[in-house]
Amino acid sequence: MLSRAFGIALWVALAAAVLFLTLPLLALFLRVPPVELVAQLGSERAREALRVSLTTSLVAHTLILGFGTPAAYLLATKSFRGRSLVVALLELPLVVPPAVAGIGLLAAFGRSGLLGDELGALGLSIPFTQLAVVLAVCFVASPFYVRGAIAAFEAVDPRLLDASRTLGADRGRTFRRVALPLAAGGLGAGSTLAFARGLGEFGATIMFAGSLPGLTQTAPLAIYDSLDQDFDVALALGALFVVFSISILLAAKLIPSWTRSGSISPFPFARSRST
Amino acid sequence: MRVCAFAAVVAVLVAGCGGSDETQLDVFAASSMRDVAPEVDDAPRYTFAGSDELAAQIRDGAPADVFLSASGAPMEELRSAGLVDAPVVFASNRLVVVVPEGNPAGLEELGDLARPGIKLILGGEGVPIGDYAREALAAAGLEAALENVVSLEQDVKGVLGKVALGEADAGIVYTTDVRAAAEDVRELAIPDDVQPDVRYYAAVVAAGDTDRAAEFVERLAGDEGGRALRAAGFLPVPSRAE
Questions:
Q1: What's the whole-model pTM score?
Q2: Interface probe with B: pick from A228, A229, A231, A235, most Cβ of B within 10 Å
Q3: Interchain pair A128, B167: CB under 8 A
Q4: Which of A258, A269, B33, B87 is the most buried if burial means most Cβ atoms within 10 Å?
Q5: How confident is the model over B145-151, as a mean pLDDT?
Q6: Per the CB < 8 Å rule, is A212 touching B126?
Q7: With a cut of 0.90, is the ipTM above it?
């Protein structure tokens, strides 16, 4: 009897969670007819915001992959004093509120910030530029990639790397030809998550980069800015984000199974049943 | 049994979060009223933001009893939807250019805002301080200054904050805002002939506690409110535009 009640309680909790998490997203689509949604996406405000979002996200993502991949490889294959501390530092932005990140970026790279004079001497003024958006996105999104990348490289059997070395490949070649392909699934999953998080960046961006349509106003900022005037634009951008996010999530779930390193789950918190 | 206890706890928590304190008046006020409103009456619970944003919140059912708007448009929008009673004009204000302490761009007058390369911050479209500032710039024939805008903020405190941090060269705010950041910014006057007609409106929100809201509005628009508003630098209601 008790165990039956327990079973029911589990289902009730699951139903409540699913309902609560999907209802707001569903409501976005129900409030405005689909035709209207598509029409609003054609509005100049929405198009500009999407363009700014995509450009800055792509640049930021290139930087994240470019620096994150080698850094993660080093952390996954070498043990050294203070390694845990370094990993913790890289993951810190995950738990720092974006508003704090924004203030921190201003305090570091702002005109009157820590490096303000040095950057000024180079003729650089970062706040209110697309570079500021890129930095904000890098700051908040990179841990999502680095975390996944470390796990992916760690899951590569070190004996395969050793074998590659004994067969005459140098470290660079081993990295390119053995480690990267084997870790590709995990890297891809981490990469998609970081990209999605970066596209959605709001708090650090509005503080560090400001909000100017066509320059620094990304899609999330445009949603916020449209709320009080152009609710339909806000809804349309919101709905687009939902569609995009669902595709990202599906991709992140599917990528690992498409590649040879299918045994690596990109989600330490949501292992698939087969593992 | 435990499930019931859990459910009960959740119910109590949810009720606690959702229910507002019935005894406190909720006043939604323009950001520029932040310092002065509690001096008129410190009993209500205040929510400060851009007037347009507050109007949007009231439209969506936020529990406001009184709405204080820094311009006519957000108020008219709510009035035409029948969400507020007839508003009264209770104060006026003036605009001023603020530059960071040290004045990094060496600005001396309003006209300098049109100089190429200046980093200017204004309020956004529909935000009263932004619309007033664009009105003043247009009146002064300084449309070129709009090319220098690097960020559009949601309310006047956002403009002031970024200038006070020294990240922008200039911003346009109300004279009454400068007091809050007097140590971090310097003022450049905007000439009388291009000053917009800034009007603050107060209205009772129809869905709120209308009796006590009406008392609050009366107090704000009366002698007591007038004294506090003047002490904070607000001006009496202008008559020139009548």
A1: 0.80
A2: A228
A3: yes
A4: B33
A5: 95
A6: no
A7: no
